[in-house]
Write a structure and sequence with these properties.
With 311 residues, the chain is an alpha/beta fold. The chain has 12 helices and 11 strands. It binds 3-hydroxy-3-methylglutaryl-coenzyme A and magnesium ion.
């Protein structure tokens, strides 16, 4: 192999193009034991955009004590003004929105939970209280012309509550969208989903009136199912896929979560299927190798390891 997958024309029913929502700088770095220097984060994000990623989630305007790894959001965001990509940021409440808007953020994401336990642990709120917290955030962000993503965590399984019933997920997803979110990202926070479960949830969301075009998928790879789950979602018509360069990631408030689906693993599959992403796999892999050196450990991505393997 020469670093490119063999392209076999796309199986019927798959989309011709996928938008990758890159989360490595946020979902990845929020989970590092030590805070990565701000300048390294800025270079990482520049390199991700230079590799062709058009949506690069940059940081979170959350309470700095809750996620100290991202406490430098005010310092980082101004260093990104020349990045040729959309730069969404996570915002849990009005305080976070004020901070993000003050720096000129134009895409924000609120992040809810399908389960009560994770809502309490991640947001210090019940599910209903967190939706009430998001309501003015979404309204004000929309009034300011920002694009709003609504993340929903624990859409498949929850480490404390076990399997999460599909109707419970659909109900919370609808409530998030009803606040005015432009898109919904279905989070498999601890990576326990399997493809049939993914298709069942997508089908029930459609039945409840949620169009597939508004849905993105966000798979963590704990059980090695993230790519299979992604393919199931693509077969259903989903065209927005979250992934993290090098497979960085996890969630500090869900200890069993490992990294996200690695962007390189995703691009390898999509390239092979002839599905366009605009991403240069070699440049992306070089970026993840560079980041792994900064973090002092190899990337968990199989594709990064294969492509950077030296005899
Ligand atoms: P709280 O302790 O309930 O906060 O935390 P509060 O509303 O009671 O406020 C307490 C103090 O914090 C106040 O200060 C606020 O001003 C301040 P005081 O008046 O006492 O001096 N404060 C803030 N300061 C800066 N920025 C803010 C902010 N908010 C309040 N935004 C809170 C509630 C939501 C703030 C907290 O729980 C929090 O920050 N949680 C964030 C947790 C997080 O970021 N988790 C990881 C992201 S989610 C994820 O990774 C999952 C995802 O990837 C999808 C998937 O995989 O499923 C998205
Ligand atoms: Mg996540």
């Amino acid at each position: 192999m020469n670093g490119l997958p063999m392209t076999v024309p796309s199986a019927t029913g798959l989309p011709p193009r996928v938008r990758i929502h890159e989360v490595g700088a946020r979902d990845g770095l929020q989970n590092e034991k030590t805070a990565v220097p701000t300048e390294v984060k800025a270079e990482f994000i520049h390199r991700l955009a230079a590799a062709g990623l058009t949506t690069v989630e940059a940081t979170s305007f959350v309470h700095p004590k809750w996620v100290p790894q991202l406490a430098d959001a005010e310092q980082l965001f101004p260093l990104l003004s020349d990045v040729p990509a959309e730069l969404p940021v996570l915002v849990p409440n009005e305080r976070g929105l004020d901070r993000a808007l003050a720096l000129g953020a134009t895409r924000i994401a609120v992040f809810g939970s399908a389960t009560e336990t994770f809502a309490a642990r991640n947001l210090n709120r019940t599910v209903a209280e967190s939706l009430a917290m998001f309501e003015p955030v979404v309204a004000r962000a929309k009034a300011a012309g920002a694009h709003v993503r609504g993340y929903l965590s624990m859409c498949f399984g929850d480490p404390w509550e076990g399997a999460v019933p599909v109707p419970q997920v659909v109900r919370t997803a609808k409530a998030l969208l009803d606040l005015g979110c432009d898109e919904l990202s279905l989070g498999d926070t601890i990576g326990v989903a399997t493809p049939g479960h993914v298709q069942a949830l997508l089908g029930e969301l459609n039945a409840a009136g949620v169009a597939t075009g508004r849905i993105g998928v966000h798979f963590h790879d704990t059980y090695g199912q993230a790519l299979s789950n992604t393919l199931a979602a693509l077969q259903h018509g989903v065209t927005t896929v979250d992934a993290s360069a090098g497979g960085l990631g996890g969630c500090p408030y869900a200890k069993s979560a490992t990294g996200n689906l690695a962007t390189e693993d995703l691009v390898w599959m999509l390239d092979g299927l002839g599905i366009e992403t605009g991403v240069d796999l070699a440049a992306l892999t070089a970026t993840s190798v560079w980041m792994a050196e900064r973090l002092g450990r190899p990337s968990p991505s199989r594709t990064v390891r294969a492509l950077s393997h030296k005899e």
